[in-house]
Design goal:
This protein is of the alpha+beta class. Helix 1 crosses helix 2, helix 9 runs antiparallel to helix 21 and helix 14 runs antiparallel to helix 15. The relative contact order is 0.11.
Length: 878
Amino acid sequence: MDEIFGVSMTLITTVLVALLGAALLLVALAAIRKPVVFKLGVRNIPRRKPQTILIVVGLMLSTLIVSAALGIGDSFAYSLTSNSYDTAGRVDQVAFVTTDYDTKDYLNLGEMSSEQADPVIAAARADERIDGVLPFLRVEVPAINDATQLGEPVVRLVGLDTGALAGFAEDLRTTSGDPIDLALLQPDEVVVNNKLADELGMSVGDIFTVYYAEQPAELRVASIAPSTFLTGQADVSSDLAAGGVMALSALRDLIGGGTALTGVALSVDGDIRNDLGLSEDVSDALRPTLEGQGIGLLLVKKVNVDGAVLAASIFTSIFLVLGLFSIGVGILLIVLIFTMLAAERRPEMGMARAVGQPRRQLIQQFVSEGTVYALMAGVLGVILGIAATYVIAGVVNNLFGDFFPIEAQISPRSLLAAGSLGIVITFLTIVASSIKVSRMNVVAAVRDIPEVNSPTRRVRTIVYAATLLLIGGGFTFSGVNTNQLGLFGIGMSVWPFGVGLIFRFFGVPSWPIFSLVGVWILVFWLLPDKQWTQIFGEYDGDIELFFISGIFLVVGATIVIVQNTDILLAGVSALGSVFRSRLPAIRMAVAYPGQAIGRTGMTIAMFSLVIFSLIMIATLNANFAKIFINDDATAGWDIQVAVGDSNPIPDLGATLREGGVDTSQIAAVGRQRAPGDGGTTPMQREGTDKPGDELVWGVDAAFIDKATLYFECRAAGYDSDQAVIDALRNDPGVAIVNSGVNHDNILEITEEDNGFAPITVDIQNPVSGDVATVRVIAVIAPKISNLYGLYTNETSLAVAFPNLDSTVWNVKAADGADRNLLVDQVESTLLRYGAETFAIRETLEEGQRQISGFFYLIQGFMGLGLIVGVAAIGVISF
């Protein structure tokens, strides 16, 4: 994926540079043929520095936006891919027990017997492209440093076969770079990674305690190593990094013996940043041997790097698509600037035309002037784009640095692409504006009086009409065929202009025609979803709809305003009559917009685009807060306690009472359990080829009875929410899902489908291959944001999952209980069990703060368009 991304960016950059080179070559050729015209254009650059600066600021916005968007994409790609390579280290692949050979689940690793491991090791050692084969065992335990009174509920200890470390030496070094020999460690010594050392406040020689099966064991820190897969980091997220590594025999002794493994790590030829394609070739070669043994092969490094590139491209797309609003504003400002410059020099241009200057030379003069502006703006935009990249990367790192660190990085290729694109956009807009302003009535221009529109029918009007009809019809037809709302919406918003121009060609006044066009666009995009679907049908869309709909809403509203300026300004003038002493000033103020309809419309559109985009982001932020933080978000629970399989808690209430907690503060306790480590589980809707991986939970009767559940829609035969709850408790094979799972192309139930036929879903055990079949009878209301995944009773999952290893206890505090104190008591009591305890509402609020912070960042990025408005006011004022 990263190779494809790189090739695409290189191709785009090459095309943009070629366009820029062609544009500058045309200007150079024109300057050589008519040097006097070129010099006149350059001399027209305002000598007053403030006006020149404002013009350049307005023109550079497109370059700034593109530079910042590509820069943040580079920062994400660099940071996430570097983190992926550093985390994986020499481990390219991991073989473990699963029914899915091409698995991507690197958290939910089960148990591998020596009989299962032997063919993996033999096949891997027979492949010359594999230079490292390392059996390992991974165990999750809680850890406490008694000296600092700090604890970590989930620490991943990794045991490595010390006789098979060849090929993995780079991953076993201290933070200072010294090599580590696990064979020299004492049985009670462990190499901890820097994440665990930081969490527990430990240094070399310190002793800490871990618990397995509720039995304590003291370990001594032999050395501190970077966080990698082999030193206990389970994922690229630094939130899952705390761990340590020791000899395989020592770890087995700690957990009570046995010969089981978790998996076999493989390293292919090359350094840490090796050819990911080679890893795929090796996987394909091992498939015939391993697939039949129930062994899956996870391409650890490739999966994480591909995910990093995908995340980077998503963030780049978000910033680019939302930045299109500001780019659109910048284009409008370019047109406005050159329209104003032309208006200022109108008598001068009229005199030049009167004495014989051809129109094409007038165009060359404006293009020459604009090219100088564009080059200055391009350089300034790239410089400010680099600065914006560092600011945005810093903000993102503050928001999400606990999960993955972000470092500002922008490649020369992105700078070249951004600068070229910005200059090309500016240049093309300048050329179009120059052609427009060069059209004039010479007599009217010399006398500097308004031009009188000729009633003569012009062929170009019908040409424009035909072009718009063809473009609109093409987009509409394409949207219908591909079922894409973006294409369909563009077409339905463009072809009415073609119809309007046809009416104009036959002499119909513009006021009624284009007022109707503007109203049509507004109605099309603002029609409620239900009525819109009834008229036009179902269509698919993505993030691009924000830009497309926003642009056309602004266009439609601006057209309606501009075409009815006289009416609106008459109303303003009438309102001003209330203040009679100010009436002359008001009349003078409202007269100018009516005389310059084009400039008025562009100014309205510029500010409307910026305001629309900012309000849109603010609305999204408010709606997310309303969805995730509300009185029903927690499903009635106050505290959650997540427990792993190494230290199970069969009865939470009894365990807390034994630990001295006053359980009268607890009103109810409910349990939910998941297979393995609580990661996603394969599932598929029966009768379809739409597989998916989702969280699956088995819940007990107490959870079902005490949770506060509401449903967005229910299956036929379940007339109330209570009917669904009763069925979930009493009927085997009944399940409910949250709206996120529903919309992940597995179920696709809509709110209008209330009374749908129950949907059968097969849930597969990835280790044994056994299948549990459930019937989905309801979709949980989105306002319950604490529940995610598929929920059924524990009995229903027992068919395929006899051991539900991951447990989450839900606690409802009694009325009047101090919830914060209760959380602290539960957390301290259960720390030796490796339990993660947190207050549900506070956790949701923290997540919402991060989301809000990201929205504020987007608002700030899009608010750069306000610079354009300020520049526009400055240019007009001067």
